[in-house]
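Data follows
____________
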Amino acid sequence: MINIETLMHLLDLLGTFVFGVSGAVAAINRRLDIFGILVLSFVTGNFGGITRDLLIGAVPPAALINAQYLLVSILAGFICFFWYAGIDRVRSPMLLFDAAGLSLFAVTGAEKAIEYGLSPVMSALLGMLTGIGGGMLRDMLITDIPQVLRSDLYAVAALVGASIVVIGHVVGLSYGVSGSVGLVSCFALRYMAIRYGWHLPVANISAQRRAEIERIDNER
């Protein structure tokens, strides 16, 4: 039977891969060259995990001492570079791969925080941070507003998935059960938000002011 450390490592690598794909797709959409694609793939796939490890004292971070993370990121980048046409057939490929990476890292981040003795609340928050970190830096590097700062459900979905893992730990469920439920819940919530336009409330502004803001943004 697979032990929890091996399971977490495999999920971490899978999260690195799917987040790497989302980063590579974003790079291709912005017409970056192969180097830019590989850089964005690595950054997107590993920044959240590196941030998590630094905050909990797991140093050096796993992504910097285990070559598997680099190889998985490079693999994701090359797959997108050579077979982008196939990936692009998927509706909103970057958003879907991003949702998968968000879900995987939210649950693994929360579990690793628990293992390092963080409180339930901080474990859930760190799981959320692990999930949103890579996508946030990806969006910043391509000069886009990070998904986490938009009104659609992004960080909320990660927090839900991470919280389920934490609650499962508190009530004595195995990580296999709580992690699976958390992963599916996070992905489902994020997918439904993408598909149906679910979002958090935003401040009301007049149509005239909105048009002004859009005009200023377009002039930049």
About this structure: Residues 16 and 46 are 6 Å apart (CA to CA). The chain has a mean pLDDT of 90. The chain has one domain: 4-219. The chain has ten helices and no strands.
